[in-house]
Amino acid sequence: MGIRLLLIEDEQAIGDFIARGLREEGFNVEWATDGDAGGHHLTTGTWDVILLDWWLPGVDGLTLLRKFRQSGRDTPVLFLTARDAVSDRVRGLDSGADDYLCKPFAFEELLARVRALARRPSVIANTVVAHTDVHFDLATHRVERAGKKLDLTAKEEALLLFFLRHPDEVLSRTRIYEQVWDERYDGLSNTLEVHVVSLRKKLEVNGGRLIHTVRGRGYYFGEEMT
Ligand code: CA
Known about the structure:
Elements: E1 4-8, H1 12-24, E2 28-32, H2 35-44, E3 49-53, H3 61-70, E4 77-81, H4 86-94, E5 99-102, H5 107-118, E6 128-131, E7 134-137, E8 142-145, E9 148-150, H6 154-165, E10 170-171, H7 173-180, H8 191-204, E11 211-214, E12 218-221
Parallel strand pairs: 1-2, 1-3, 3-4, 4-5
Antiparallel strand pairs: 6-7, 7-8, 8-9, 10-12, 11-12
Helix pairs in contact: 6-8
The structure holds calcium ion (CA).
Calcium ion is lined by residues 10-11, 53, 55-56.
């Protein structure tokens, strides 16, 4: 499913430029536009490389980075900053960044740095993505609910992984379809619904409903909304 990259950047033009460029290069990019959303993605997702801006609304990049490292994770982080003072670079690296890039930068340079970080041997101990009692081990592709193994097709796995990475969030059909199938959603095909129904059934063998239909809006993965 390609290299999973989390971009945390509040400036629309820069974020758009980075996200679009990296997607064209085949990266799977999730873009958070403030520190709070970034923090949420850092704690709930599994990433291969993280691009982190220093100045963000909400929690700033340096704080996010420190917390992320304190939680024991060592995913490579490329720090993006408008600051080019030596002391600031040192602060970024001291806080656990693997590399930094000062704005403005050329896309080619960003791409070269990201590729270098993505090639590093992965030392991530925890390859499990989990929500409620569902566990997905990315290394072995073993999926469990309440400790019992589920047999999923490749597409159901991809769909479940997308849900697990976006728990407690209403997800539109367009967004799910375009991310999981990597095709434009025409709103006519029922492929997505068919897969949701089969995945839901398999999950419900060992527990209550986790994939909820939100009328007119899409789906929601998690405990029942109250
Ligand atoms: Ca910023």
